[in-house]
Amino acid sequence: MAIQAILIDLDNTLFHWTPCDREALRAVHDQLRQRVNVTFDRFVELNWLVRGELKVELANQGASHNRVIFFKKIVESLLGKSDVELVLNLYETYWATFLQIAQPQPDAHAVLEWLSQRWPVAMISNHTTEVQLRKVAKLEFDRFFTTIVTSEETGVEKPDPRIYQTALARLGSQPADTVMIGDHPKGDIQGAKDVGLTTIQTIEFAEKVDTPAADHVIANLGELPALLERLV
Predict the structure, then answer these.
(1) Spatial separation of the C-alpha atoms in residues 27 and 98, rounded to whole Å
(2) Edge to edge, what strands does the sheet with 147-150 contain?
(3) pLDDT, tens digit, 9 for 90 and up, residues 2-36
(4) Which residues lie below 8 Å from residue 169, measured CB to CB, with a gap of 6+?
(5) Do 151 and 127 form a contact (C-beta atoms < 8 A)?
(6) Sign of the four-CA dihedral 182, 187, 190, 192
(7) H-run or E-run covering 11
(8) CA distances from 208 to 79, 184, 229, 232 (A)
(9) Measured at the alpha carbon of residue 108, what is the angle toward residues 132 and 175, in degrees to the nearest 5?
(10) Amino acid 114: pLDDT
């Protein structure tokens, strides 16, 4: 195929999101426990409950990922009232801890360098724009991307075709000549396939691996250049 452009996911593709989230939640719980007696397991349960509710209430909106809303709802649930200062402190603690822990996947810089020397690269991600930009800055990925597309700025989330189409329009690329790389079977892979992109799923950080719908599967990011060289 004649590759014109690359789309690539961020979380659990270019770095391991899960341990960052877990440690950030522990830091938030330590702070929250100074105000209310709640176990870590119960706090995590509330976190996922709120996350699920917001996904329904704010479907296809980047705000459904906004941790300040998560913590606002959790604090109000536990205290029975609002506490703005506590909510903001929890939000700042979460992201300070998360970003401190976050590290690039070992091959990420080399692979992104290799990609960006050959094609325009768009990072495409479901989340709020500020947070994703902070991750990109911390992980020192900025110089590799021609554009960054988030669900907050497009108003829709992967696998909605419009978020892919936004990235394609910015890069001036056609679906048949564009490759999408990511970890999520539905958001990164099926959504991109529905638009007509060639898909590559990296399963390096997958908690479980279902029967993949991707055109190609790699065990880790370091395998990507060799695969793309076979495709062109």
Answers:
(1) 9
(2) 147-150, 121-125, 5-8, 178-182, 198-202, 216-218
(3) 999 999 999 999 999 999 999 999 999 999 999 99
(4) none
(5) yes
(6) negative
(7) none
(8) 36, 11, 28, 30
(9) 70
(10) 98
Q: What is the mean pLDDT of residues 145-165?
A: 95
User: Is there a contact between 164 and 124 (Cβ–Cβ < 8 Å)?
Assistant: yes
Note the pLDDT of residue 211.
60
Active site residues: 9, 11
Cα gap 143→153, rounded to integer Å: 20
Pair 14, 102: CB distance under 8 Å: no
Cβ(4)–Cβ(118) under 8 Å? no
Is the per-residue pLDDT at 208 higher than 80? no
Location of structure tokens 């360098």: 113
- The pTM assigned to this predicted structure is 0.94
